From TrEMBL:
Residues 6-53 form the SpoVT-AbrB domain. Pfam families: MazE_antitoxin. Transmembrane segments: none annotated. It comes from the Archaea. One of its GO terms (molecular function) is DNA binding. SMART domains: SpoVT_AbrB. This is SpoVT-AbrB domain-containing protein.
Length: 54
């Protein structure tokens, strides 16, 4: 597991740290889903595939 601490900006934005970007195959312009799990009180980021956009 790779983890890091980031600060939330005034507009509630965060930057994905480079250590995580290297493991997570996304690039500028990609679309991702942000999923909140109420049961576990966690947030996941999942890359959207081309197939999901169709």
């Amino acid at each position: 597991m790779v983890e890091d601490i980031v600060k939330v900006s005034r507009n509630f934005q965060i930057t994905i740290p480079v250590r995580i970007r290297k493991k997570f195959p996304i690039k500028e312009g990609d679309l991702v889903k942000v999923i909140y799990d109420e049961k576990d009180n966690t947030v996941r980021i999942v890359k959207i595939t081309e197939e999901e956009l169709r």
